[in-house]
Amino acid sequence: MHELKPNRKSEREVRAGFIPLLDCAPLVIARERGFDRRFGVSLSLHREASWANIRDKLDIGVFDCAHMLAPMPIAATLGLGRATEPVIAPMSLSLNGNAITVSQPLYAEMRNADAPAVREGGMAAARAIAEVVRRRAAAGREPLTLGMVYPFSCHNYDLRAWLASAGVDPDNDVNLIVVPPPLLAESLKAGRVDGFCVGQPWNSVSVAEGHGVIVATKNELWPMSPEKVLGVRETWAGREPELLSDLIRALTFAGQWLDEPANRQEAASILAQPHYVGVPAETLLRPLTGNLPRGGDEADLVDPDAVVFHRHAANFPWRSHAVWIITQMIRWGQVREPFDILALAERVYRPDLYRAAAAGLEIETPEHDYKSEGAAAGALFFGGATFDPRAAVGYLETLPIRAAGTDLKAFAAHNP
Questions:
Q1: Residue 146 banded pLDDT, cuts 50, 70, 90
Q2: CATH superfamily membership of 98-224
Q3: Model pTM greater than 0.85?
Q4: Which of 9, 192, 202, 206 could form a disulfide with 40 if both were Cys (CB 3.0 to 4.6 A apart)?
């Protein structure tokens, strides 16, 4: 890691909100290991219980920045979900890190329906839950209730894409409900949900308690896919460009430190403190090291990229990620009025700010702002699909399950 020299500037306080999740780690480590102070920043960290709290407190200026779901700045800039202030994402905080976990009773149903699919895991496991959905409907049973953390989240979009890949309509065949991340493991235990998609460590908490089984990880659905970003109000970024640049540098070096395997044990011990994530360090260490018990009768998963903080250009805010997120908002009817998709992506995701902050710090950044995903790029993308960010409406037209009433022709007229 590049050697840091002490910054002689007086420290400037930055108030940051976070949710108790493994991927709040860059903010926590920047504070605990002094990366913030080396750049003249004093991070004041505030733990929140829900993403709605994060949204509201950033919106009204209680927070200067926040650990945010990748879609949240886009939703805020569109004025969705009660947000009033446009928000930008000048850097990404992490890639991967989510998983889909089901209750022990649902796991048993899935095994009975299609044991090979469950054993294979990832995208294949969707076939088993689809068969459960069909059998329940045929028997007149209540549909499954599945939890996710926020409507404008990759958890919501990942879970929907996973279900839809096997022919399950997430708006009509199951019940999707919003539950804050720290409450999902308890909701599964109490039987209020049959499964959920959430960031670690709450999947591993359910497994450790014997109530849940991980059937798919985010890295099995779309490797190196977006998860959390640094969110700041557009006006604050314009008013404090130097401070934002120093904050980006501090968080980037925290991400580098986190990705060193030798530091993962210390990271787990720090994050385990009650005012941060507040779960046992050994539970946090499992996804941090990629040695992940799935639960049930399934073999453990070994995945060193279960969560990534700096490697694989993890801090770069790809505008193509923003475009994919926007397509999901359109796909599921969260936005109806057509607009220029690339223009919105370029307003909200700001690789120019990240490149400027990284300049001179021996941090390589991608040359381009967009990249394709899937077969065309030689990588996995939701079971074999392809995504070209320059043809977003064409991609939407290939998806057989989407919200009724979405006028793709109108979007095509704004996105030639």
A1: very high
A2: Periplasmic binding protein-like II (3.40.190.10)
A3: yes
A4: 9
